[in-house]
Specification:
Layout: H1 4-14, E1 60-63, H2 65-70, E2 75-78, E3 86-87, E4 89-91, E5 96-101, E6 116-117, H3 118-130, E7 135-137, H4 139-142, H5 147-155, H6 157-163, E8 166-170, H7 184-196, H8 203-212, E9 216-219, E10 225-227, H9 228-238, H10 241-244, H11 274-280, H12 286-294, H13 303-312, H14 320-325, E11 331-333, E12 383-386, E13 391-401, H15 412-421, E14 427-432, E15 454-460, E16 465-473, E17 484-490
Parallel strand pairs: 1-3, 5-7, 5-8, 8-9, 16-17
Antiparallel strand pairs: 1-6, 2-4, 2-7, 9-10, 11-12, 12-13, 13-14, 13-17, 14-15, 15-16
Helix pairs in contact: 1-7, 6-8, 7-9, 8-13, 12-13
Length: about 500
């Protein structure tokens, strides 16, 4: 990848601005998302943002509770019945403008507590009319603070963005870009901004983009709007390919591909897989959802679990254990499991399963901490099947008795592994994912930040069910032991 054009475009727009990771003026140390106020810890004043034409003295609109409760299912702000005091609601539909914004940029709040700045309502109402919509949806005016109502609204987020006519992206960096003179260089700079803006690194906005990607538009300076897809198309066809090619990493912003739903011969039936049908509806597998969220964070604790569930299914689930229980019979790439992502403790049959999609590093993370291995999608590795007992999968395996059961001299690294991971187990096993397609005895390499082979460590007391204990990078100083192809049950 050549990033020179990206840096040039972005620098032309924002090169003279200070970093804003800490207190709006400083750069964070990069050791943990908890140290960066782009992710956590920023002081946010709800409804501190106003429209560019407003003198910041406008009134606030509050919800009409009766109107809200009278609408069943997904609710949106109704343009025709809302007045200068009360927000009123109608059913969200394919004539709804869906607004995706970054809460920390000042547009956050609740319709029943903070209210919604009148200037912001007027802005989105005017834009909805431009798109020939009769309503708009945004979390601030449409998700109240009452717990039951909030849960109901979150359950409808997928439906709202999937069925919306347009998804409008609101990010303060993009909103600072003047597109009145839209040159090719400016189009390229706009796309460079989309890649790294706050909106594109958040977890909730990832979900909203995934659901609304059929028609994403960007809100720019003075409320000018531009179509993301058309901008990318123009740059791809007429601009610098070394910038456009970077968007191969942003499939969540592109319309979903058509399903592979064809017949090998007339009357032979569809060849579409379950995954194809899932993608047709805009959903992804539990593993792919985990990868998408592994580099994105939500400000509220445990919101990443809810978002994870909404990426793979229609309704929200707050319990990660239930997410995995709902996957019985599904397949998962074994390579996806090779990471430092935390696992369930004390949940029978789930020691191998990530208990959240993100690595929740503490604020004091430093260079002395154990190395972290991020998850990757595990493509080109053999898949395992999720059963009621655990994960049944074939791996390249090296079994060995732990030192507590057998005092035979071992490789120094086996001694270290046993001491760190296997004190309570009679048997240990080193696991490597198998390549697929290809010969069974070819290991699939870990595609993250590891210089040497990355192995999974499992322990057992009966050699029938194996518990996940962690991952270990095998250094170059010792040769790897012999591995055999085996099917194991991870419990």
């Amino acid at each position: 990848m050549d990033f020179r054009r990206f840096h040039q475009c972005y620098g032309e727009l924002f090169g003279d601005r200070p970093a804003r990771c800490k207190d709006g003026q400083q750069q964070c140390d990069g050791r943990s998302p908890a140290n960066c106020q782009r992710f956590k810890g920023a002081t946010v004043l709800d409804q501190s943002a106003h429209d560019w034409k407003c003198e910041k003295d406008c009134k606030r609109l509050y919800w009409d509770r009766v109107s809200f409760l009278n609408v069943s299912g997904a609710k949106a702000v109704c343009l025709s019945s809302t007045d200068d005091r009360r927000l009123r609601y109608c059913k969200a539909s394919n004539k709804t403008l869906a607004i995706s914004h970054v809460w920390s940029h000042g547009q956050g709040g609740r319709p029943d507590t903070t209210g919604f700045n009148a200037c912001l309502h007027n802005r989105y109402a005017d834009l909805a009319i431009v798109f020939n919509c009769d309503s708009y949806w945004m979390d601030t005016p449409c998700i109240p603070s009452e717990k039951t109502l909030r849960s109901e609204c979150i359950d409808n987020i997928n439906k709202i963005f999937t069925e919306s006519k347009v998804t409008l992206v609101c990010d303060r960096d993009i909103m600072s870009i003047d597109i009145s003179n839209l040159t090719m260089s400016l189009r390229e700079a706009l796309l460079a901004t989309v890649l790294v803006c706050d909106w594109n690194i958040r977890a909730w906005t990832l979900l909203e983009a995934m659901r609304g990607r059929h028609n994403i538009h960007l809100l720019c300076k003075r409320n000018e709007v531009i179509c993301f897809r058309e901008t990318l198309k123009v740059v791809h066809e007429e601009g610098r390919i070394d910038l456009a090619i970077l968007f191969l990493t942003t499939q969540h912003l592109m319309p979903p591909p058509p399903p592979d739903d064809w017949e090998l011969f007339p009357g032979g039936g569809s060849t579409a897989t379950d995954e194809d049908r899932l993608m047709e509806k805009g959903f992804v597998s539990v593993g792919e959802a985990g990868i998408l969220l592994s580099h994105r964070h939500a400000s509220r604790d445990n919101d990443d679990i809810v978002i994870w569930s909404l990426l793979i299914n229609e309704k929200a689930i707050k319990n990660a254990e239930q997410i995995w229980k709902n996957q019985l019979g599904a397949k998962i790439n074994t390579g996806f499991l090779l990471s430092s992502t935390p696992r369930f403790q004390g949940h029978k049959g789930l020691s191998w399963a990530p208990c959240c999609p993100t690595l929740r590093l503490p604020p004091d993370a430093d260079s002395t901490r154990e190395k972290v291995y991020l998850a990757y999608e595990g493509e080109e590795t053999r898949s395992g099947v999720i059963t009621s007992e655990g994960l049944q999968a074939k791996w390249l395996v090296h079994r060995f008795p732990s030192l507590t059961a057998d005092c035979t001299p071992r490789l120094p690294r086996i001694v270290e592994i046993t001491s760190r991971y296997l004190q309570k187990y009679s048997w240990g096993a080193l696991l490597r994912p198998c390549a697929s397609p290809g010969p069974w005895n070819v290991p699939a390499p870990y595609r993250g930040n590891a210089q040497w082979p990355l192995l999974a460590i499992c322990g057992s007391n009966d050699e029938r069910g194996w518990e996940w204990r962690g991952v270990y990078e095998w250094g170059v100083s010792d040769p790897l032991p012999e591995f055999k192809w085996e099917e194991l049950l991870l419990v």
